[in-house]
Specification:
Oligomer: single chain
Radius of gyration: 20 Å
Helix content: 40-55%
Largest sheet: 8 strands, parallel, barrel
CATH class of the domain at 54-314: Alpha Beta
Number of strands: 12
Distance between the termini: 17 Å
CATH superfamily of the domain at 54-314: Glycosidases
Length: about 375
């Protein structure tokens, strides 16, 4: 297994500017900045020993000539004290204010930042870093095109996606040069798109849209346009983000779980693995409110089915693991295992999901036992 536990905890760490110009900082807004140590301990108490968390480049690199690591160093130390393995997102949408998203300097600037980050990680922990260089290149591209992330007027989607891929690959090379043992993953949306009708034109439009989900990984792994510098060494494990609204009709409505056209997650995982030949994990999954336990049950059942088919699924990341204020309207989103901090400074555990998590952990232990017996 690639991780210390089959379940991972994902801390929301988006730090982009909204369309209205306001900068988000979800690590701060969720209270995780102030209580990373207790958050990691709370996860460990539930049997979760691996997390996804993030750096805030807009703060660390606010000065273009020097880095200020004071926002990250305490989190590194907290993870060490709690015994938490962390996959660190280096760019979760937010770049420094002085660096335009479409700047030709982005690849070199990001590569320098990434190399400095893995250097500090090695210095503090004595171990190589495990990183996701750029979160969701595909969604990043979509958000720029739709104006969700402002500042790139007239950006052509294909051109901007390749711009991000160049920055990602430049960072991989810089990190490998700094610390060859650095491990890499990526987090890309896992989707399914149905045609609006059975007409050949609609079938083809849906097919092209669905296959577009793989383009970023194709570029990173050198399966397409190898002149960009991609290759197999760019990823040790591939992350896939899967939510209840990740299936829809082309130019139409969402396809809900239980619909006769809903594609089984196990089939989607198997297709991705056969395409890339790399271990995979669910780098984000979850939903809001009382549906949380049922969603986790569905996802885990499909992951075990994929494992029985020989798909090397390495983990399932509950994301976000804490409640958080919504991106656009700052509504209180009840998600994950933990509440926002209460007046006493402590989070509350959402017991129905914690109970389901414990049940799924037992089921996975049984599944691992069967798989070991079958391999002997």
């Amino acid at each position: 297994m690639a991780f210390r536990s089959i379940f991972l905890a994902g801390f929301e760490c988006s730090s982009h500017r909204r369309a209205d110009g306001r900068r988000l900082d979800l690590i701060r807004a969720t209270g995780h900045e102030q209580q990373a140590l207790s958050d990691y301990h709370a996860c460990s108490a539930l049997g979760i020993r691996t997390a996804r968390d993030g750096l805030r480049w807009h703060r660390i690199g606010a000065d273009p000539v020097r880095y200020d690591w004071s926002s990250w160093h305490p989190m590194l130390e907290a993870a060490e004290e709690a015994g938490m393995e962390v996959i660190w997102d280096l760019l979760h949408y937010g770049v420094p204010d002085w660096l335009p998203l479409d700047s030709p300097d982005l690849p070199a600037r990001f590569a320098d930042f990434a190399a400095a980050a893995v250097r500090l990680h090695r210095h503090v922990t004595g171990r190589p870093a495990f990183v996701c260089p750029i979160n969701e290149i595909s969604f990043f591209t979509y958000a720029v095109r739709k104006g969700i992330f402002p500042g790139v007027p007239g950006a052509r989607p294909g051109e901007f996606k390749r711009h991000l891929v160049r920055a990602a690959l430049a960072s991989v090379e810089a990190m490998r040069a700094e610390d060859p043992a650095t491990r890499f993953t990526w987090a890309e949306p896992l989707i399914h798109v149905l045609p609006a009708s059975g007409e050949p034109e609609d079938l083809e439009r849906a097919r092209i849209h669905r296959l577009g989900q793989y383009e970023a990984m194709d570029l990173l792994l050198g399966l397409a346009e190898p002149e960009l510098g991609g290759g197999p060494r760019a990823a040790d494990v591939i992350g896939l983000n899967f939510y209840p609204d990740n299936q829809w009709v082309k130019d139409g409505s969402t396809v809900p779980l239980g619909h006769h056209d809903y594609r089984p997650l196990a089939d989607m995982l198997e297709e991705t693995w056969r395409r890339f030949g790399k271990p995979i994990f669910l780098s984000e999954t979850g939903c809001e409110g009382s549906a949380r336990p049922a969603w986790l049950s569905y996802v885990c059942g499909e992951v075990r089915e994929a494992m029985r088919r020989g798909v090397p699924v390495q983990g399932i990341c509950i994301y976000p693991v804490t409640a958080f204020p919504g991106w656009d309207d700052e509504r209180h989103a009840e998600v994950g295992l933990f509440s926002m901090p209460h007046s006493d400074g402590h989070r509350r555990v959402y017991e129905p999901l914690a109970t389901e998590l414990a049940r799924q952990q037992r089921l996975f232990e049984e599944e691992f036992g069967r798989l070991r017996e079958a391999a002997e």
